[in-house]
Design brief:
This protein is α+β, with helices and mostly antiparallel strands. Strand 2 and strand 3 form a beta hairpin. The longest helix is centred in the C-terminal third of the chain and has 36 residues. The chain starts with 15 loop residues before the first helix and ends with a helix.
Length: 301
């Protein structure tokens, strides 16, 4: 199926300076947001603590719930609405010691004193110690770094080292911007989000490899043309496939984001941003970096 005519020749390479400015702006905004917020907003998986999911059968709000739980010795507390149900809330507490094993019952007792027993339903309780959370966080970061190193080795072997450099910079670009969006929207980063980042890396790399394969083919086909022309021609050659793949993937991810509920909402949000940015970076980041490295090589020689 061809969405784009074979003779289409959009000047993507000519827009690389504008694309660079857009990318730098998005990354800068994300960095400023992370600094302002004191770093990423780690979920219970990484920060440690206790999480309780509660549903009410009557309208209430976070302030009233927090007031009802004032008597508990659970450290700092955050109460947030969860999912699409206006009466379902997530309560996150700082403490996660062994004395809190009966936490679900304690939370329910405090809440039923402010509401009634038949109007409170404790649906889920999770605890993670601070040491376990720190260990999981370090392992998550290592997983992303090892994935990057593996990609660097693979692309250097399959293509050339300069292709690997372009791909890695594009992947770092994708993860940095997605992380910035999480900070801007105040969303938590937990284990499913690390899985989402790894999925974004894989998706973006797949798009980049398709363009790189076409560049390698066109180097022989258009050996009298400039390298910039070859890169731009290759992007246009693969444009139809890129739009089809990204479009269908976005439809699925958008459905998960809208209809998937609160449990996978953050995961779907990460994938939504990641697919958009990953498609963009394959065209406007990974490929133009090849042109820069080629021009640098030409100047040296």
């Amino acid at each position: 199926m061809q969405l784009i005519k074979p003779d289409t020749n959009i000047d993507f390479v000519g827009k690389r300076t504008i694309a660079l400015a857009v990318s730098l702006l998005l990354i800068a905004v994300g960095i400023v947001s992370l600094i302002a917020n004191g770093g990423p907003n780690y979920g219970i998986d990484f920060a440690g603590g206790t999480l309780v999911q509660v549903r009410f059968t009557e309208p209430t709000d976070a302030v009233a719930i927090k007031k009802a739980l004032e008597g508990m010795d659970a450290g700092s507390m955050v109460v947030q609405q969860f999912g699409d149900d206006a009466n379902e809330f997530m309560i996150r507490m700082e403490n996660s010691s062994s004395e809190l094993k009966g936490l679900a019952l304690e939370v329910k007792n405090h809440l039923t004193s402010a509401y009634t027993a038949d109007k409170v339903d404790v649906r889920r309780t999770e605890m993670v110690g601070p040491q376990v959370g720190s260990d999981l966080r370090n392992k998550g970061i290592k997983a992303i770094l090892f994935a990057m190193i593996g990609i660097l080795v693979y692309i250097s072997w399959r293509f050339e080292f300069r292709f690997a450099v372009g791909a890695i910079i594009a992947l770092i670009h994708d993860v940095a911007i997605t992380l910035g969006f999480f900070s801007l929207f105040g969303k938590e980063i937990d284990l499913p989000i690390i899985a989402a980042f790894l999925a974004i890396i894989g998706y973006s790399l797949n798009d980049t490899i398709i363009v790189y394969d076409r560049i390698r083919e066109n180097v022989a086909r258009y050996n009298k043309e400039s390298f910039s022309f070859i890169v731009n021609r290759s992007i246009n050659d693969t444009l139809s496939r890129t739009l089809l793949t990204s479009g269908t993937t976005l439809l699925v991810v958008l459905a998960l984001f809208v209809l998937g509920g609160g449990v996978i909402h953050n995961f779907a949000f990460a994938m939504l941003i990641g697919v958009l940015i990953g498609t963009y970076s394959s065209v406007f980041v990974a490929s133009p970096i090849l042109i820069y490295l080629e021009q640098r090589k030409a100047k040296k020689s």
